[in-house]
Design brief:
The protein has 408 residues and is mainly α. The longest helix has 22 residues.
């Protein structure tokens, strides 16, 4: 499909706010693919990319998106969204533009903080929707504090909403999981008892949904094998996903976020640049940004939703790590830190970031930004620097830069 570019908007250098305020393209294209363009702008800006480079990426993305079809203009909504009916069309994928106008008006009348406080708790169970990109759009908009992008994120969550069903969580009085890693190792242990049974269960629910269409997923979702698999696991679930997690209430929320970043980075390392797992990192950053606008109880709910959705995504992949292998990975990176003043470490990061600037695949600069941020906030844990080099579609640094201090 030819993308029509006829606005003066495209004819001169634009600032980051200009780009983030651009609403001339639909939030998706080619049916079910998410428009990532603004996510890349945020990542590149946070990595201090030159504005010329950011503009080049933005406008090339418009013309050369996946499958060469180009982004699409805004779409006419099927329904007019109001305060009274906004819940009626959640996940129907019919009325994104009207949702955008609804939230834009709500923010203008009531202010951003009040709107976020009112709607976020109701929308967070749908954070996995559109392969987490709706939550990413909102959270990264909050990161850079751009009202247009925030509004789009709220609309996108409504447009694509599929719940991860936090209401299914079961209380297990005889099991106490003190950290996300402890909880994850318990899941791996249970799967290791009969991995074929686990695989059979996941395969059976995927086949059942394909044959019976119990959940009447939108046709566009059915075109995407990965998104349909994840949506099916979100709907059917698995008992291991819904065990109560004591760490959510026992740890401080800051400790929980930090542990989850560490765990998801370990998972990314285990899966060696897996495209889907990468989204667990960039969406986790988004949810942490969203959590700044929640009270403590709501933030704990946010953590619970992430835990459930994260495991649904991993279960849908049917490639869970062996517990012993994962323990070895934990041991490899446990308590290893970089020396911030080491010139080799600085050089390593410089090359990672410069490599990210050259990427046409926007997921990689996003990952580099998140892991660089976690490296700094964690007191320079080596694992975040090492994982930042693992680009999802292209090699990162030259071989000569890969053996650095604290690697093994």
């Amino acid at each position: 499909m030819e993308n029509i570019i006829d606005s003066n908007f495209y004819r001169s250098l634009k600032s980051v706010p200009d780009l983030l305020n651009d609403i001339s393209n639909h939030i998706e294209f080619n049916g079910h693919l998410s428009n990532h363009n603004k996510h890349a702008v945020v990542a590149l800006a946070r990595l201090s990319a030159d504005i010329n480079l950011i503009n080049k990426f933005y406008f090339e993305y418009i013309e050369c998106t996946t499958y060469g079809c180009g982004l699409e203009p805004p779409k006419i909504s099927k329904y007019h969204i109001t305060k009274q009916n906004w819940k009626d069309y959640l996940g129907k994928r019919t009325s994104y533009t009207s949702y955008y106008e609804f939230f834009k008006s709500e923010i203008e009348i009531n202010g951003l903080n009040r709107v976020l406080s009112e709607y976020l708790p109701q929308l967070l169970p749908g954070w996995v929707s559109s392969l987490t990109h709706a939550a990413i759009h909102l959270g990264w908009g909050l990161d850079i504090k751009n009202k247009c992008m925030i509004t789009e994120g709220l609309a996108y969550l409504c447009f694509s909403f599929i719940s991860c069903h936090p209401e299914k969580v079961l209380k297990e009085d005889n099991q106490v999981f003190n950290s996300p890693i402890h909880s994850f190792l318990n899941i791996l242990e249970e799967i290791d008892k009969d991995p074929q049974q686990f695989k059979h269960y996941i395969d059976s629910i995927l086949k059942k949904e394909e044959e019976e269409n119990n959940f009447n997923f939108h046709p566009e979702l059915k075109r995407s094998g990965t998104q349909l698999r994840i949506a099916t696991v979100l709907k059917y679930g698995h008992p291991l996903i819904y065990l109560e997690q004591a760490w959510i209430s026992n740890l401080s929320t800051e400790e929980s976020w930090n542990e989850l970043f560490y765990l998801t980075t370990l998972i990314y390392l285990h899966h060696s640049c897996n495209f889907v797992v990468l989204h667990l990192l960039t969406s986790l950053h988004a949810l942490k940004e969203i959590a700044f606008y929640l009270n403590k109880e709501e933030e704990q709910e946010c953590l619970k939703n992430y835990w459930i959705g994260m495991n649904c995504i991993l279960f849908a992949m049917v490639t869970m790590p062996n517990k012993n292998e994962f323990n070895q990975l934990i041991d490899k990176y446990y308590n290893k830190f970089d020396d911030f003043n080491d010139i080799n470490i600085s050089k390593y990061w410089k090359n990672i970031i410069e490599s990210a600037f050259l990427e046409k695949e926007e997921h990689n600069p996003k990952m580099v930004y998140v892991l660089r941020k976690m490296w700094e906030e964690s007191g320079y844990k080596s694992i975040y620097r090492i994982a930042a080099n693992l680009f999802t579609t292209t090699p990162g640094l030259p071989e000569s830069f890969k053996q650095m201090p604290n690697e093994s």
